[in-house]
Amino acid sequence: MWRLFAFILPVIRVYLIGVKVLLYQLFHRSFTLPEQLGCRLRMKKLIWDQREGACRGFDSSNNRLLFTRFSLRREAGRFTSRNPETVQRHTADTTKDFDEQTVLRNIKDDLRNASTLPRQNGTVAIVTGGARGMGYETSRHLASLGTHVVIAGNEEEEGLRAVRRIQKESGHRKGTFARFRSEAAFSRTEKNSIIKFTLCSAGVMLVPERKTVDGFELHFGLNYLGHFLLTNLLLDVLSDSGHSGRFSRVVTVSSATHYGGRLDLNDLQGRSCYCSHGAYSQSKLALVLFTYHLQERLWARGDPITANVVDPGMVDTDLYQNLCSPAQLAKKPVAKLLFRTPAEGASTAIYVAASSELEGFGGLYLYNGHKKSSSASSYDKQLQEKLWTKSCAMVGL
Ligand SMILES: NC(=O)c1ccc[n+]([C@@H]2O[C@H](COP(=O)([O-])OP(=O)(O)OC[C@H]3O[C@@H](n4cnc5c(N)ncnc54)[C@H](OP(=O)(O)O)[C@@H]3O)[C@@H](O)[C@H]2O)c1
What we know:
397 residues; alpha/beta; Rossmann fold; eight-stranded mixed beta sheet; four-stranded antiparallel beta sheet; 11 helices; binds NADP nicotinamide-adenine-dinucleotide phosphate; Dehydrogenase/reductase SDR family member on chromosome X
């Protein structure tokens, strides 16, 4: 009976969290990178639609509709954009009569001053799982900003294909492939580089009980422990590459399932009762605990490195390939309607890695481009410390 509960509860938790995320995605647009907003700066023509109380924007070069509307609301003496994708802030003085021209001018000013992601020339980013899905989108975007991306993956052919595509797109040699498995050798190879970013995106979900080559349960070993080891091995290089005002950045990719995660320090690898849903949520909770504790240690040492954790939402990638057949069938139409695309899913990680607004900010959990609270247990400092100590022992640090 106890075993049945231990097996079923994590499944129920994961599905309930999934429904909650989908409901959020139904009512909220995906976060848009400042860069994408920046490309709209060319837009000159704004048309006010009195009937709809909204504004339409056209690309002046080809008169193409760029976005449908800024829904402006009269709100506490201000007109505020309800569309986070476009302008965050524009105001009109409502003590005067409504002045359409003022509103349009404010919108244009905001668009002109909108920030873009800064160029990252001369930097190196290591992106685990960078050959596919969100990791690939992240690698691609960072390469377009001038970063040399090292894709750390498992499938060499796929990794090299991704590198070639990135090189073709960016027009430079902006990509290399390295095996994620041999972290030690890998970090030695990169020791002389100016590594500014480590993005921990590799992951598997709901895999039937399997082990990594080192004998760790796959979710725990790959999603968490591999990233724990890799990041620790790269800390000195990251520290040397950063300086005050331009910190190096570690970004880990967790998931909303961490809210349902339970960390069993006595049985981290689910030996007593294995449940793939529980194993996945646990590995994602471990990533959050690790990121927070890492940041504490970095502040204490005075290292110019920040560590943040992101939650990409539900994204249509190969990650769902291990769902059971009925769930696969149900997932297809839902994914079409409500899941984010890999590019949308990657946008928060890219933002956290490259935006100047987050310079110097660490120990944050970000979802859809905004700071959010993670689960209560993830802030438990004792648990963070214990997991860190245990992880060091497991990987021999
Ligand atoms: N998709 C979602 O809805 C969602 C939601 C929340 C969080 N996430 C998280 O986002 C991250 C990216 O997932 P995704 O959705 O982009 O999934 P994906 O398309 O399946 O990509 C997973 C990546 O992980 C790598 N990987 C898998 N097994 C590996 C192994 N044994 N060794 C090294 N690398 C391995 C893969 O590299 P190879 O191709 O080289 O095997 C692949 O690039 C994951 O950490 C996932 O948990 C995803």
